[in-house]
């Protein structure tokens, strides 16, 4: 005999779902902004770029040790209501008594909602652009097969936005932008080469397949499965890594500074087993 669902049970389930949606819509953005503000504060930087004293590693969601203002960033009663409703709703739908996941709070959170999105566009003057870069004598990198090149660009005290342009010869390349909440000792642009992006704490295992193979077009380094090292600066994803047809068009973009830190421009060729890519790029800040 099938299970009968009473009118009362159906009403409670509907009311529960409506309450969850209402709570999320009203408080999610505010709560997330506060969480990321605490994360930045734990590294000695506030989202607006102001340095603050840090006495040691802190849990960004645990509040200050002494229970100051940071300890009350999120309304505990509200968070508790949302958590209980979510667990209760999942148990009713699954029909079991599964315990709450032991994942750390915030492991599956999306990118920082307080950061504005980047702008990106293309131009068709590929040949002229590459000739300009060649004439300048810098801004040319050979990205080997299976490699990822990270161009680290610190924010500049006289600027408020970052601007970038790039193109490649013959073949496409993966490109994305991250932001590291740290204070750089220099304004100089630096370059690192690796066979993966583990140093940025983003788990990209299985993300890029062989060039031209199944799933090759799904090149991105989203926040899923990311691992965090509390001893390293927090990193936010501004633009996920996707394959760009930079051999056909010049890709250009800009992003407003979210604060003081270092932009990580990722040029990802890890999906290519045989082909190296010649990259032409230019970055500068604007006011």
What does it look like?
With 287 residues, the chain is an alpha+beta fold. It folds into 2 domains: 7-94, no CATH class; 119-286, GOLD domain (Jelly Rolls, Sandwich). The chain contains 3 helices and 10 strands. It has helices at 7-42, 76-94, 126-136; strands spanning 119-123, 140-143, 148-154, 161-168, 173-180, 190-194, 235-244, 250-256, 262-268, 277-286. It has a 5-stranded antiparallel β-sheet, covered by helices on one side. Strands 6-3-9-5-7 form a 5-stranded antiparallel β-sheet, with no helix packed on it. It is globular. Residues 95-107, 196-206 have a biased composition (Acidic residues). It comes from Steinernema hermaphroditum. Keywords: Acetylation. Residues 47-73, 89-118, 193-236 are annotated as: Disordered.
Layout of strands and helices, then pairs:
Elements (H helix, E strand, L loop, with lengths): L6 H36 L33 H19 L24 E5 L2 H11 L3 E4 L4 E7 L6 E8 L4 E8 L9 E5 L40 E10 L5 E7 L5 E7 L8 E10 L1
Antiparallel strand pairs: 1-8, 2-10, 3-6, 3-9, 4-8, 4-10, 5-7, 5-9
Helix pairs in contact: 1-2
């Amino acid at each position: 005999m099938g299970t009968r669902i009473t009118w009362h049970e159906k009403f409670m389930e509907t009311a529960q779902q409506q309450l969850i949606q209402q709570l999320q819509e009203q408080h999610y953005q505010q709560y997330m902004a506060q969480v990321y503000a605490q994360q930045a504060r734990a590294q000695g930087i506030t989202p607006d770029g102001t340095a603050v004293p840090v006495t040691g590693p802190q849990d960004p969601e645990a509040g200050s040790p002494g229970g100051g203002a940071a300890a009350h960033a999120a309304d505990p009663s509200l968070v508790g209501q949302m958590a209980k409703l979510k667990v209760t709703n999942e148990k009713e739908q699954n029909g079991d008594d599964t315990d709450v996941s032991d994942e750390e709070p915030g492991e599956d959170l999306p990118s920082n909602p307080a950061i504005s999105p980047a702008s990106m566009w293309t131009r068709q003057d590929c040949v002229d652009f590459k000739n300009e870069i060649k004439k300048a004598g810098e801004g040319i990198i050979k990205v080997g097969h299976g490699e990822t090149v990270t161009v680290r660009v610190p924010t500049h005290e006289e600027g408020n936005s970052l601007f970038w342009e790039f193109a490649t010869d013959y073949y496409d390349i993966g490109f994305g932008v991250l932001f590291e909440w740290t204070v750089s000792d220099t304004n100089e642009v630096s370059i690192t080469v690796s066979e993966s992006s583990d140093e940025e704490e983003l788990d990209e295992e299985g993300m890029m397949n062989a060039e031209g193979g199944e799933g090759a077009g799904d090149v991105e380094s989203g926040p899923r499965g990311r691992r965090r090292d509390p001893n390293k600066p927090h990193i936010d994803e501004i633009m996920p890594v996707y394959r760009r047809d930079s051999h056909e068009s010049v890709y250009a973009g800009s992003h407003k500074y979210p604060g003081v830190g270092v932009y990580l421009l990722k040029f990802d060729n890890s999906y290519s087993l045989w082909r190296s890519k010649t990259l032409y790029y230019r970055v500068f800040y604007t006011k």
